[in-house]
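re the bet — no i am not wrong, look at it urself. input seq straight from the record:
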Amino acid sequence: MKRPLLLLAALGIVGAAHADFTLTVLHTNDLHAHIEPSKVGKALYGGYAKQATLIKKFRSQDPNTILLSGGDTFQGTLYFTQYTGLADLALMNYMGYEGMAVGNHEFDLGPGPLGDFAQHATFPVLSCNLDVSGEPALRNVVKPYATVKVGGQMIGLIGATTPDLPTISSPGPNVKLLNLYDSINKSVAELRGQGVNKIVLLSHLGYDLEKDVAAKTPGLDIIVGGHSHTYLGADTGIQGFPKPPGAYPTVVSNSESKVLIVSSWEWGKVFGRLKVTFDDDGKVKSWADSAPILVDDSIPDDPTAASMIAAFQKPIQGMMKTVVATTPVALTDDGSDNGNSLLGDIITDAMLQYGSKNGAQVALMNNGGIRANIDSGPITFDEIIQTSPFGNTLVVLELKGSELLSTFEQGIGKDGRRLSLHVSKETKIRFDLSKPTGQRVVEALVNGERIDPAKSYRVIVNSFMATGGDSLFALRDAKGYRLDTGTLDRDVLVTYLKAYKGEDLTKEKRIEIVGR
């Protein structure tokens, strides 16, 4: 009696139990055109050539791999200025990405460059909550979801873009924002209708919203995050690395199953690897051997990627000599007048001008972030980089007045010998160093009004400060709204200097220190 059953099973007429399926998700997010390594503290991290080495390694040792991006490939270095995303694309095509979410910075130059990028990508570019049907550059190349076959299994990929898109980028009048939750649920239903039971959301929503989506959206299994530049996992203890707000992966349960959320910080400084096992129904069963990997000097460069980067570098070197602005007076920050200098005033005013579209009322700059003065006359891009060499992005935070006052206190240090902060126009601080630590800010005004400890203020700072750099822990620990704009501080400075006519901004005494 056994032989007929064996024959039927062989013919596929009798169902048989399936083995569990293990998928390794390799992922990046918020690369922001950082093709080369970036400095953090005293070491370099990231770089596409090192990522390519890791990708080859894991593809060779893990049988079922998929390589995904949480978006914001655009904007952040001279590579984007020169190539508008196409240098990144050439390397991503070479590395074999299999899906990318549309981030807000993909629209910084309007929909055209994103259309060029998506048209030439060998992988799907995805966003389910954007209606691009009315935008000719995007209607045929940006899709809500896609499927990829890995190890004989169909994996569903859905893209999602931050609902803040219209206010923080330039999608143009033809791109319409759809309801986020309805859009994700619709894509999940359509994928399930095609028999797909393993679904990954490629998210450019930010960590907090991703947790909410995971809790409210049955059918998702994994969320590859982006937008909030979130580092998940164990605290590295490395200077310049943020404190993780959650585990890698962060596990969120909904009415149907568990959802695993992963993110790999920013700029390719860490590389994500999640090894997850699904049961026969496509539910997450277990995960192991999963952690963000430091992309440091211990990882050799992939030779092909390195040669591609060397070719892309040639025009960049010429751009360094380009004159980007002119100043009739020297712009200096000699530290002789704590917190008051023409260059410091210009930099913070440039930040405030940029951040005003996100409601920023105050801009703060750490003194150590200004590394060189600018001579009068033509200003080259090389001079700008010498002044702002760290490649920090600008971050908008919402602080309680009490947190802002604490930031001012922390900015003058324990001994009060030298203030490490510059502030933007219409912000005034008076310190009395004869007072005990914690009470040295005796007056602080924003737009002519005393700072109310209970009121909320939007503040724009650089990414180094936002993570507690220069002991500004009140910025690091603030729990309110937080948006890393992805825009470099030096790019904002260039924009401001193009319109600068030589005004002496130091006439407005922004900071006063007494009681020495």
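see?? Residues 303-319 form the longest helix (17 residues). told u. also The chain is about 30% helix and 25% strand. so pay up
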